[in-house]
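tool=predict chain=A
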Amino acid sequence: MKQIHIRRFLSLLLAALTLWAAAVTAGSDSAAAALQQLRQGSRLPQQALRWELGDFFGLDSLSAVTVMTLAQSPLLLAGRSTVAALLSAGVTRDPPEPAAPESPDTPSPSADPSLTDGLTFADNGVPAQTTAPTSSKGYTVVNGVYLKNSSGTELDADALADGSFAAQLTDDGPQVLIVHSHGSEAYTMPAGQEYTPTGSFRTDNDACNVVRVGDEIAAALSERGISVLHDRTLHDVPDYNDAYPHSLASVEDYMEKYPSLVFVLDVHRDAVSDADGNQYKLVSAEEPHAAQMSFIMGNAYDGWQENLKLAIAIQQNLSADYPTLMRPITMLNYRYNQFVSPGAMLLEVGAAGNSLDEALYAARLFAQGFADTLQS
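tool=predict ok
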């Protein structure tokens, strides 16, 4: 009688173990996967069955426990030969692949330390954002350079991609003229370095506005052996609305006096704010963080393609080392005085929320890319 009770108990235990095996292997899509699930479970059920049945009637080198377990699952039973082969070879779980160390989206290049000389990058308290396209939708892409075309004129990407441009350096005299149609455009200074405003984020203090940025570009280009003239006139003071006619008059005077001038850089800064008027700074993802820059190019004049091709070439050069330094080029149906030369461009350096140091660092990087493009 005692033996009958023991065997009833063991029969119930075996039934429970069968249900356990079915639960463990649920969801497995192959015999091998199901077997791995079984082997990863507790070893206690298998030891109990071996105590009752032993391993003396194995089939295909399988123990009694394994054979009985296979019989409860059509999936496992159909793959009995696979199970046997896996067991004879020793089924093991491969260790997970070690996680690759995360690399930054835009690794910082090994920039010349002199490019940050004298800059402290003191926090001015303005929140930062980096503007970069996440897809080509809505853009024309030429040699990896993104163009936001709002001009109403279709762009021929293939014609713009040949890498050529008309404006070239010569040795005849001054080559580059830097002007500021909106010279009073200023930045957000850190605490203790504030300027006296003459408008919303504007000042006639040339140490804090885009004229200071023009000084930096001029100095950096001169170090590369490029002859530069810098018109420091505030063409938007006192009349902002007539700024472009005023700056055009200055450019024409310079070009008449210096016929060797080929490149005209009209240096501005942008402004980016939320619905409440709170400013944002635009910075590169690369460190040190430079103010992001952008070309604003017009096409309401003959020959605008050459100006645009020059901007594309410079931006392509800069983006090779600083992928997020330049924002997409903006194309608009205006002239921006760019008809004066195939080397005329409008460059925005940062935004009103940027610090002056961020803008000066960007100016140095721009001058480097400009010189590399023209001197290569």
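The chain is about 35% helix and 10% strand. Residues 2-89 form one domain.
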